[in-house]
Amino acid sequence: MTSSNITPVGEQVGQFYDQLVGAFDAALYGPNIHVGFWNSQDDATGLEDAANRLTDMMIERLQVGPGDRVLDIGCGVGGPALRLAQATGAEVVGVSVSRKQVEKANELAEAAGLSGKVSFQHGDAMNLPFDDASFSAVWMLESVMQMPDRTAALSEAARVLRPGGRLALTDNYERETISPERRPVIEGILKQYLTQSPASFEAYPSMLREAGLRCAEIIDVSENTTRQSVKRLGEALAKNMEQFAAKVDPEVLAKLKPAEGQNLEMPEVGYLIVTARRPAAV
Question: Under 8 Å CB-to-CB from 215, ≥6 apart: which residues?
Fold first, then answer.
């Protein structure tokens, strides 16, 4: 399959992140667009190092090395893909619906001396521009939650994955029952960031099976990730707002900032690390 058609949702998400590229020049997470991992409530690790720690946890789950080819679906500005290539020696291809993210990611790869090992291109997870069984492993760091159909996106990932290959991803899920009063509040916050409704922990294994994958691990790391990130990012933004505002279009910044009185903490929404594999050919 070589089509590069982008779905309407993909176009919308791509435009959103095109507007945000300037934010990552002033990024508090470094070249990352995902939450961090803290070992405890008292862990004083900074935002960028905590984000790198989560990336390293995902790298371990892929189990790749030299000679392997990895697909990064929803690659952002490329930080995790570069870290993956440096740590393992694997070739990495990243795709994003944001053309400006792809441009920035390729610039970072060249600056790191990895442009021969890591490349980025425009593409949509719902219609990947790659042949069947063309990757040893696939990962999706906080990207499947912005796709219109999780099972369809997982099926595309499985299609390009070689038999026996591994998939690692992170996703939001409904950790606690969301009350009728809280649901519109939570859905409104998620919609603000073009994020879909939380997944179901219980339904994830069957969703993976439907996509042609077999679940290897599902773990809840909410206490170490999202709850810590919301708190610490808020503190860091308050200290660095002047620098951040100078890098980001005022309209975009207005979209990102919480409304007056809005609390972005959502204890009902948890954070999963999921690992799966495509069954080996018989």
Answer: 204, 205, 208, 209, 274, 275, 276
Question: For residues 100 and 67, is the Cβ–Cβ distance under 8 A?
Answer: no
Nearest CA to 118 out of 69, 51, 161 is that of 69
SS3 39: coil
Read off the pLDDT of residues 224-275 as tens digits, 9 standing for 90 and up. 998 778 777 777 777 767 776 777 777 766 666 655 555 567 889 999 999 9
In the three-class reduction of DSSP (H, G, I as helix; E, B as strand; rest coil), residue 124 is classed as: strand
Indicate the SS3 state at residue 53: helix
The DSSP element (H or E) to which 17 belongs, if any, is: helix 8-20
Tell me how far apart the alpha carbons of residues 235 and 16 are, in angstroms, rounded to a whole number: 24
| b (16+ CB within 10 A) / e for 115-128 | eebbbbbbbbbbeb
- pLDDT tens digits for 191-214? 888 899 999 999 999 999 999 999
Q: How far is residue 185's CA from residue 195's CA, in Å, rounded to a whole number?
A: 13
Whether the CB-CB separation of 88 and 114 falls below 8 Å is answered with no
Q: Where are the beta strands (DSSP E) in the chain?
A: 69-73, 91-96, 118-122, 135-140, 161-174, 214-220, 269-277
